[in-house]
Amino acid sequence: MAKKTHANKPAASKTEVKAEEMTNGLAITALVMGILAILLGWIPFLGTLIGLTGITLGIVALVQINKSKERGKALAIVGLVLSAVGTLVWLILLISIVTYFAGFAQYV
Known about the structure:
With 108 residues, the chain is an all-alpha fold. It has one domain. It contains three helices and no strands.
């Protein structure tokens, strides 16, 4: 016989987890990708690939969180912002390198 709680409802088993108590997995992945995009943003194409992946996962996670009421909205937003910053760092670095070497083209 199941244990009874104060309101005479059966107690939830240890394996049952409500959707509201779960953290969205894509939000966690977006956060990890955002951190990696910041750390690896200076590596050509790798930082951009990771950053764009983090942006995509962050957006998908926010949509899923709004539909399912899972936790992790802040994680998805932070992952999205970090991924965008990492991607922008790479773009600024790329533009700087191109303009630097374009200045030497007149001397060749």
